[in-house]
C-alpha cells in the first residue's frame, strides 16, 4: 500500500501561475554524490494571477537545503515552510520584481529513477521533462513559466573534461584543485523541462550545416570514445532533418550550435532540450555490423523527432501537461512525414498503422484509455502514451487530409507566427488551422476530448450506375466516458472496376477516381454516381482515420484488392484481412477439435506476391507478413493465446510447404554478400530475403536449418545476422546453443547488441522460453538499473511474447509482478511501464483473469508504492 492516496490533477483546475521567473542563474559544483546547486531567480508577480496570496510556493523533491535568501537577505526558518514536495516563502513583494537565491545539495549517484541529475556510466546528465527540474532545485516547475537560463558548470577537469548546457558557450576557465568551469547562456526563454546539463569524458564528432539563409550551424555529437565510429548515420540524419524542415515547413534552426549526447541510461528514447538533446544510445549509435536496418530507420526518425521539436515544442511549447499531444502528436506526425519522404511513404505508413492498431488500439480499448488530451492524471510520466503520441499524430494527419497539404501548411505558419515564444493549448493549434483556412472545426475538436477507437460499419447498395454507402459510426464506452458523440471522420475512398483498373465516378457533381468524404453523423449516406458497373470499394485509403472499419467481404474480394488496389495501404490491408479471416477460421477449428486445412486462395495470393518482380522489395516483404499475435488477439472477444499461436503457425507452415520452391528462389535471388550499406535497395533485398528465410524455417528441415546457420555464420551486417539467429532460435535447429553462445562472445562489449541477444531469447516461441528468461535474469550482463536491459528482457517477454507470458500456470504473471515490485523503488517510471503487461486482463478467460488480478493486487498492496505504479495498477483493476 502507498503511505497516502496520491492526488489527482485535473485539467479543469488549471490556473495561470501566480509568479513568473524571467531569469535563472544556475551554478553547479558537480560531484557524483554531492553536487552543490546555486540558483538565482529573478521573480515577479504574474499580472494574470488570480490569487491574492502573498506567498510564493516552489516545487522541489529530494533536495537538501543549504540556504535561501530574498533580495540578498537570508531567510530565517520561520519565513518559509518546507515539505517533501514544496518550499513556501510566506511573504514576497507583490509590487516589484525580487530575487530569490537558493543553495541546495543533490546526490546524483543515488538517483536510479533517472529523473533530475543522475549518473550514467561515468557521465553526469539530466532529464527534466516532465517534472524533473524540481529534483535539481526548487522552482516553478510548470511549462507556462518560461525563463532565460545562464548556467555555470564547475567540475574536476580530469573526470569531467566536457561540460555542456543549453545555448551558447559564453566562457570557460581553470580553477584551483584541478577543477575547471564552463558557462552557457540560452538566449531563448524556455520552460525548465527543456533545461539540460551533461558532464563527462566524451568525444565530440563534429560537422556543420548551412541554413537556407546562409547561417553556419555547428553540429556536435558527444559519445564515449569507443562509440565514435557509430555516429555517422545520426549526423547525416540530423542534416537531412534540418534541410527537410526548411523545405517542408519553412522552419530554420535558431541557435549557432546543435548538440546531441548519447547516454546508456535513459528512461525514454530521447529528449529535445534546447540546443542540447540527450539521447538513449539506442537512437544514435549505428554501424552496419552492430545495427539493423530497422535500427537505422528508428535513429533517423528519432533524430528527426527531437530536431523538429525545436519548433513544435520548444519555440512554441505547452501551457500545461494536459496539452502534451500539442507538441508530441504534431511532432510525431512531422517525423512520420520526414521518414516517409526519406524512404518509402507506403512502407512507412503501413509500419505506423500496424503499430497503432496493434498497440494503441489495445490501450484505447482497455482500462487506461484516455483522450489525446487527458483530463486528469496522478503521475504525468504515465501519460507519455501511444494515445498521446501515435493517436495524437493521427489527429494531426486528419487535419492534413481535410485541409490539404497547402491548407495545413498555412495553418502551421499561422500557428508558429502567432504563438512563437508562448506556452499554448491544443485549442490554439486547431484555431490557427481554422483561421488560416477559413473553416470551422468545431466537431473535429471532439477527437481531442473523446477516448476510444471509433467503429465504422459500412453497407453498400448499387443500382443503375449509382452506389450508395451507408456508414454508421459508434465508439465503445471508455473510463469516465460512457456515451460518445459522433466524430468528424475523413474517409478517403476509391473504386475498382472488374478488371482491377480504377473506376471513375461522380461525387457531388464532380468526376473523380478518388475522393475524401466527411462522415459527421452517427449514420450517413454517401452517393456516388456515373458508375458503369458495380465496383469493388476501397475504403479508408491510406488509413485516413484511426478507426476500425467493418465491411462485409468474401475472401475472393479481398484477394482481388490484394492484387489490384492502387492504394498501397489498402492493398496491404486486404492481405492482412484475408489472412486474419483465415486464421480466425482455423481458431474456430482448433476450438472445436477439427482438423486444420490449408487455404488455397491464400496460397495463390502469396504465390502471386512472390512472383511479382515489379513492386518495391520492402513493400513486397510487408505483403508477405502475417498479422501479429497481439493484433489478432485484440479482435477476439476472449483472447485464446494458444489457438492464435497455433493457427498463425499453421498458416506460416502451410505457406512454406506449398511455396517452398518460390521462397527459396526469392531468397536466393536477393541473398547477397551484404556489407550492410543502408540504402533503399539493399534494405529491400534484406527484408524480402529474411521474410523468405522466416517462412522456410517453419519447415524444420535440415536444408532450412543449414540455410539459417550459414547465413548466421557468414553475415557481415546485423540485419542478416540477427534475422538468421532468430530463425535458428525459433526452430529446433541443433546449432541453437552454439549460435547463441558465439553471438554473445562476439558482441559482449556492445551493449545495444547484447540487448538484442536478450530480446531474441525473451520473445522466442519455443517451449523452453520461460526457463531461459529466468536464467537470463541471473546472467552477469543483466542489470535492473539499466532501462534498455530491463526492456530487452522483462519488457520483451511480457509485451511481445503472448504465448509464454500468458502461460496457463501463471508463472509469467508472477515473474512480471516480482520485477515490477523490485523496479518500483529503483525506477518508478520503468516499473509503471512494465505494469502495462497486465492492463488487458479483462480480455482473457476467467482463470487468467484471476491470476492477473491477483498479481495486480499484490502490486497495489506493496509498501512504499510509487505514484507511477499505483496509478497504472489501480486503474487497471478499477
Ligand atoms: N519529449 C521526449 C520524450 C521524453 C519524455 C519524458 C522523458 O523523461 C521522463 C524523456 C523523454 C520526446 O518526445 O522525445
Ligand atoms: Zn517528442
Which SSEs are present, and which pair or pack?
Elements: E1 9-10, E2 19-29, E3 35-45, E4 56-59, E5 64-70, E6 73-74, E7 80-82, E8 86-89, E9 98-106, E10 116-120, E11 123-127, E12 146-156, E13 162-165, E14 168-174, E15 179-185, E16 190-191, E17 197-200, E18 203-210, E19 216-223, H1 232-249, E20 257-263, E21 270-271, E22 276-280, H2 293-308, E23 317-318, H3 324-342, H4 345-364, E24 376-377, H5 386-419, E25 423-424, H6 426-437, H7 446-449, E26 455-463, E27 466-474, E28 489-496, E29 505-507, E30 510-512, E31 514-519, E32 523-528, E33 536-539, E34 548-551, H8 555-564, H9 568-591, H10 600-611, H11 617-623, H12 629-633, H13 641-658, H14 660-670, H15 680-697, H16 702-714, H17 718-729, H18 736-747, H19 751-762, H20 769-777, H21 787-800, H22 802-805, H23 811-826, H24 828-835, H25 846-860, H26 867-877
Parallel strand pairs: 2-12, 19-20, 20-22, 23-25, 26-34
Antiparallel strand pairs: 1-24, 2-3, 3-9, 4-8, 5-6, 5-9, 7-8, 10-11, 11-17, 12-15, 12-16, 13-17, 14-15, 18-19, 21-22, 26-27, 27-32, 28-31, 28-33, 29-30
Residues 305, 309, 328, 331 line the site of zinc ion.
Care to describe what's here?
By secondary structure, the chain is an alpha+beta fold. Helix content is 40%, strand content 21%. The protein has 26 helices and 34 strands. Strands 2, 3, 5, 6, 9, 12, 14, 15 and 16 form a 9-stranded mixed β-sheet that branches. Strands 18-19-20-22-21 form a 5-stranded mixed β-sheet, with helices on one face. A hairpin with a 2-residue loop joins strand 26 and strand 27. Helix 2 packs across helix 3, helix 23 runs parallel beside helix 25 and helix 25 packs antiparallel against helix 26. The longest helix has 34 residues. It starts with 8 loop residues before the first strand and ends with a helix. The chain binds O-methyl-L-tyrosine (0A1) and zinc ion (ZN). O-methyl-L-tyrosine binds next to strand 21 and helix 2. The site of O-methyl-L-tyrosine has 14 residues, from strand 21 and helix 2.
